[in-house]
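Title: Prediction job returns without error message
Component: structure pipeline
Severity: low
Priority: P3
Assignee: unassigned

Description:
Job completed but the reporter wants confirmation the result is attached to the right record. Sequence as submitted:
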Amino acid sequence: MVLSADAAVADLAFAGGNLSGTGVLTVTNIMDWTGGTVSGKLLVPATATLRIDNGGAKYLNACAVTNWGTVTWAGTNSLLIQNGARWVNETSGLFDILGDAKYDYNGGDAGSFLNRGILRKSGGTGTTTFDQTPFTNTGLLELRQGTLRLSGNYAPSTGAVTRILLAGPDSPGNFGRLSIGGTAQLDGLLEVRLANGYVPPGGMEYGILDAAAITATFQDYASDLTESSHFINPVYSATQIRLVTVGPSATLLGCRVGTQDGLFHFAIQGIAGQAYRVDASTNLIHWSVLATNVIPGSTLWEFADPDTSQSPKRFYRAIFLQSQ
């Protein structure tokens, strides 16, 4: 099929051949793609659905696919990406990965995948890989089960959301994971939600992200509450993020006097997204409130005592306040 001008079709069963040309093909209802090559411009509007399923080989070749509607990607057949093929999942678009197939580089210039809407992995307990395809997320990346692997770097925007669903103990079918072959320059919101009525007990751990290197933390954090005695908290290392269920007690770290401002500095490590208060005392009997704050996504509140010069010697404590 060669399009020399824009065209629209309600339903399309695409099982082979080549969709090419300079015109834009708009599918207004349902397109079933089981084989063939997309070499032109394909548009899925908000009211339409593109279903990618098993069948023959499927190629994205020097094309531009724009989704405002719903894409479901099932089966085990990879999508073979060639010659700079571009995919944009727009703000109202849902790209739902139902299995463990591969978004596979197949030659020529690297393609790209831009998610402005919802990219969800809701099926498959194995790995779906975006291979040698620059991946940009300014929307919602939702991982329900299995692993989504990006072979390159991952740098979500400030407004992006990375959401993990927990539906049970440590098992590929109970929560999603993100694996990054390059550097994770993290930003935006990390959101943890509980599914299917699951409430994790204290002392649980979930490895949700690994990378060659993590050079920044998520700016914000939100999670469903378990109970007042413990919370789900991210724990960062140089190459991993784990979720752990822990109590709300805070730890004071890194006490020092700042060389530039002369103030006494320390970090309060606590539950991300929860409120804490810093108190000070000279005798451990009478305490005064210095500040309150919500712990950021990094789990560290960097604090500087503004009254250092008036009280050069005193004690500090951090008090957990309430669930946000």
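Comment from assignee: result matches the submitted record. The chain has two domains: 2-246, 251-322.
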